[in-house]
Amino acid sequence: MTLLSYQVFKTVAEQGSFRKAADILGLTPSAVSHAIAALENELGFPVLNRSKLGVTMTNYGEHLLPYINAVLNSDESLRQAIAEFNGLRQGKVKVGCFSSICTNWLPDVMHSFQKEYPGITIEVFQGTYDDVVYWIKNAVVDLGFLSVSSAGDIPIEPLYKDSLICVVQKGLKRDGQKKYMEIDELRNHQFVTQRESTDADIQKFLKENSLTVQSDYHVVDDLAMIAMVAHGFGICLMPELAMKDMPYAVDCYPVRPEAYRVIGIAALNPGFMAPAVRTFYNHVLEAYQQEEYRR
Fold first, then answer.
1. Which of 32, 38, 137, 212 is most buried, most CB within 10 Å of its CB?
2. Buried (b) or exposed (e) across 241-255, using 16+ Cβ within 10 A?
3. Which CATH class is domain 1-64?
4. Where are the domains of the chain?
5. d(CA 245, CA 272)
6. Among residues of the chain, what percentage have pLDDT more than 90?
7. What pairs with residue 256 in β-bridges?
8. Could you tell me the maximum CA-CA distance found in the chain, to the nearest angstrom?
9. Is the peptide bond before 107 cis (omega within 30 degrees of 0)?
10. SS3 190
11. CATH (residue range 159-262)
């Protein structure tokens, strides 16, 4: 087995197609097919299912892929270390992130990082908290942005305290003139909600305050949720960071009791990172870590 055969398997698994993998790798489809056949022959079991609908991983392939990712990442780490010894700054960093980080932080940090380290490329994977956790644990990404409460057993370095706010339709009539939303008032409203893997911190806040929300609207992304609220289908709770540059006119109120999520940067083994990954990790800490979290 060779690193090339590992890379071929990884690419075919990601693309679901021998031809697409061949285009990405600069090989012929027959060369890709031969590499997979040779790999399966040496392993003694199939790693891919072939059908008219495309290519999918077998159960064996799914279990094998994280190990192959780890081998390929180790090879990349070795190449980066050698380049660093030779005075060069190069390599690739694969970053997992959720929506509000992708739209608010990542463009700025990527610009500033690549201005300082033009030889290091950044590959971005956007998804839910659950997606980022899966990607980190299975070596799909080198590191990822998560909330502290969603990281589970993955080591995470806290960066930023992001307040949770209540978002309502513009001009919504309320009892009294309070400039915040209390739990009892929240109980009287229909909600627009996201699935738990997307808003784990909000679900945590609701559970801690014994608040069972009523909702007929279950969406995935932040923009869709605010659109529903703006058109009067309910209220929602959102992290303040996610509300930056929203195109819809709505009113926002702090909630009482005060609530927030803590955003951090997570890596499976922060004590052992490829040089390019470590460089990016430190760059993020310098750019976004609030003083209260600095050691």
1. 32
2. bbbeebeeebbebeb
3. mainly alpha
4. 1-64, 159-262
5. 37
6. 30
7. 182
8. 73
9. no
10. strand
11. 3.40.190.290
